[in-house]
Design a protein that fits this description.
Layout lengths: L1 E10 L7 H13 L9 E6 L9 E7 L6 E4 L5 E6 L6 H14 L9 E6 L5 E6 L3
Antiparallel strand pairs: 1-3, 1-4, 2-3, 2-6, 5-7, 6-7
């Protein structure tokens, strides 16, 4: 699948004191762009330093915005997690579940490229690359 990057940051979930501000900031910037208002949006996690405790890039992207930088995402080798969009912290709770599965040896992550897909209808899914 080809996605087009609108904005990117590099951060760390545990050691970057500005992580939350960085992530909410780029999402806010994208939400303020009227040309992508009615498009599905993707939060793509890539360029992992190590595992979920290391540095990574987060890029916000859409499937159709060809003037932006292209990012090719494999569509195979993922485990899918549905997020409850009615919960205020649903995405964070899903990530906590993913990290716990990994810590317990129940999820063998590939750390290539993971992504969240935010549909226009409000549904959210997280796709985690797994080793095959």
């Amino acid at each position: 699948m080809e996605l087009y990057i609108l904005e990117s940051i590099r951060t760390n979930n545990f050691t970057d004191p500005e992580m939350y501000l960085k992530i909410t900031g780029i999402w806010q910037n994208v939400h303020e762009r009227p040309e992508v208002e009615n498009m599905a949006k993707y939060g793509v996690y890539h360029n992992y330093e190590s595992n979920y405790k290391g540095n990574y890039d987060l890029s916000i992207a859409t499937a159709s915005f060809p003037t932006a930088t292209k990012l090719t995402v494999s569509e195979q080798g993922y485990k899918n997690f549905k997020v409850d969009p009615s919960r205020e912290n649903g995405v964070f709770e899903a990530w906590q579940q993913i990290w716990a599965l990994e810590e317990n040896g129940e999820l063998d992550r590939a750390y290539t490229m993971d992504y969240e897909k935010y549909e226009v209808d409000g549904s959210i899914e997280i796709y985690i690359a797994v080793k095959e």
